[in-house]
UniProtKB/TrEMBL annotation:
Pfam families: LRR_5. It comes from Entamoeba histolytica. Signal peptide: none annotated. The lineage of its organism: Eukaryota, Amoebozoa, Evosea, Archamoebae, Mastigamoebida. InterPro entries: LRR_5, LRR_dom_sf, Surface_bspA-like. This is Leucine rich repeat protein bspa family.
């Protein structure tokens, strides 16, 4: 089967270097003019390569340091690198599109505690040290870092299925947090994620998580039970240290790496010591 103009244009959209486009037109005569058919730039451009795509109408900015062009037929930009919500609103006024929008602490102070639906991620310390008196709903974001660190009055969080990463210290020292539902979309739970969440009573680790980070549940004194799926292969250092009320925890055979002191002074320490697959240094 011979590729036609439309097929080769679709294929060339995945080229990563300008030389691939040039070699295609030099090597196969019938594909000459392929670059002229593009109405957007499939790769970052410089002064030289810009001339090879004369009919661009939508200019894609893939990286913060990309050279930006506003000449010729270009009528709008699509920005792929991370921008804050304030910048997004400015670009929207200009008719541009932002694909990676982060709600920062500065944005929250300026625009309020309701997370806009356009947001993809929460910035570091977005709500940290802030007294949130009611449960908070998180829209369809993908990443959360230490966004709620030390929100001492936060009691309940609803995490949407769009979230894949809960970063380091995300809910660290949320001392009033009682319940949290982590969806199966989450594949990463960072270090100290629930560090000293004194009021948290139970939690189920999603079935796609492979590692529970260092000090993840350190000092969760009210935690009585936790479900660990067979997807987990590693428990971090001091992970469950000082979980003094923990009486129910399953240790699947999938776990091959135990962190130092991961069960030190936890409620089921003596029972876990009977499990010969758990090294002594865990206690």
């Amino acid at each position: 089967m011979q590729l036609g103009y439309n097929e080769i244009m679709i294929v060339s959209k995945y080229f990563e270097d300008i030389n691939d486009f040039i070699n295609l037109e030099i090597g196969i005569k019938r594909f000459q003019g392929n670059m002229e058919r593009f109405h957007f730039n499939p790769i970052p451009l410089n002064q030289h390569s810009r001339r090879l795509f004369p009919n661009i109408e939508t200019f894609h900015i893939y990286n913060k340091k990309d050279e930006v062009f506003k000449d010729g037929r270009i009528i709008k930009q699509i920005i792929w690198y991370k921008v804050n919500y304030s910048r997004y609103l400015e670009e929207k006024e200009e008719g541009n599109i932002c694909k990676n929008i982060e709600y920062t602490k500065e944005d929250r102070i300026k625009y309020g505690n309701t997370i806009p639906i356009e947001v993809n991620s929460l910035g570091n310390e977005c709500f940290s040290f802030y007294s949130i008196l009611t449960p908070i709903n998180i829209p369809n974001i993908i990443k959360m870092r230490h966004s709620f660190d030390r929100c001492s009055t936060l009691t309940t969080v609803n995490i949407p299925t769009s979230v894949t990463q809960i970063g380091d210290r995300c809910f660290s020292k949320c001392t009033s947090l009682q319940s949290i539902n982590i969806p199966t979309s989450v594949i990463e739970i960072g270090n100290k994620c629930f560090f000293e969440c004194y009021s948290l009573t139970s939690i189920a680790i999603p079935t796609n998580v492979s590692k529970i980070g260092d000090r993840c549940f350190y000092g969760c004194k009210s935690l009585t039970s936790i479900e660990i799926p067979t997807s987990v292969t590693e428990i971090g250092n001091l992970c469950f240290k000082e979980c003094t009320s923990l009486t129910s925890i399953n240790i699947p055979s999938s776990i091959t790496s135990f962190g130092i002191g991961c069960f030190y002074h936890c409620g089921c320490e003596e029972e876990l010591k009977k499990n010969k697959t758990i090294p002594e240094y865990c206690f």
